[in-house]
Specification:
Layout (H helix, E strand, L loop, with lengths): L4 E5 L14 H10 L4 E5 L6 H14 L3 E4 L6 H6 L4 E3 L4 H10 L3 H10 L4 E4 L1 H4 L28 E3 L16 H8 L8 E4 L3 E6 L2 E6 L3 E4 L6 E3 L12
Parallel strand pairs: 1-5, 2-3, 2-4, 4-5, 6-7
Antiparallel strand pairs: 1-8, 7-10, 8-9, 10-11
């Protein structure tokens, strides 16, 4: 069986960098070693697919890659089956997952990534759908997918854009940590990796490690949250 190759970005936009620039080297390394010339972009997390495609084309073309929007393909399933690499961008996670289900793309993407080893790059909502479920997304449920179960490319959950509690703030609403701990009160909840802005999880086969320009925070049920630094081996999470 081919190795899965995932580059999971907490965000495509990080302060001090242009769009996707902070992870340029990681993206180029992944695509170059797979001899990729064309990236299939899935823009379903936003409503204006063509405008989203044009935004994504800018950095990828600058780096020497062609980008095709799945919304412009006559047969989306066939587009997945012949894809050299897949990129799913951010936006609303509920809208994204619903559209993947509506177009019967869940299993084709899983097969292409897990069985064929095609590189998968996800940002924000694009990493929420790469996990076990979308239970730990930050987004509002503006539409209702038939299930919260996602692509399950990794067997745990991720919370992108993770924000640490600001104890100097006058805002006294729930923190991100509190919301994740509430998720862990549920019976079948999974571990949650809170990726700060600029954090990237790279998965190759049964190996996973934290990359990027920021750290992460790991929440496991009935355990104290764990601080994760860039360079940490997280392969044990793939065994859940």
């Amino acid at each position: 069986m081919a190795k899965r190759q995932l580059l999971l970005l907490s965000s495509s936009k990080v302060h001090g960098f242009e769009y996707l620039e902070y992870t340029k080297d990681d993206i180029q390394e992944l695509l170059t070693k797979n001899q990729t010339s064309t990236v299939l972009f899935i823009p379903y997390a936003l409503s204006n697919h063509e405008a989203y495609l044009k935004k994504v084309e800018i950095p990828f073309k600058k780096w020497g890659y062609k980008v095709e929007g799945i919304h412009n393909q006559e047969d989306p399933i066939h587009a997945i089956q012949k894809s050299e690499a897949i990129f799913i961008g951010g936006g609303n996670t509920f809208r994204l997952l619903k559209t993947l289900y509506d177009n019967n793309l869940i299993n084709p993407i899983r097969n292409r990534v897990l069985k064929d080893g095609v590189p998968y790059i996800g940002a924000s909502a694009g990493i929420n759908v790469a996990t076990s479920s979308i239970h730990t997304t930050n987004d509002m449920p503006i539409v209702y997918p038939p299930s919260f179960e996602a692509l399950n490319l990794v067997p745990f959950n991720i919370n992108p854009h993770y924000m640490d509690p600001d104890f100097s703030s006058k805002h006294k609403g729930e923190t991100r940590e509190e919301r994740i701990l509430q998720y862990h009160e549920e019976k079948n909840s999974k571990s949650v990796l809170g990726l700060r802005e600029g954090a990237t999880l790279y998965v190759e086969g049964n190996h996973a490690g934290l990359k990027g320009v920021a750290g992460a925070r790991l929440f496991q049920k009935n355990k104290a949250p764990l601080e994760i630094e860039v360079g940490t081996d997280l392969s044990y999470l793939l065994k859940e």
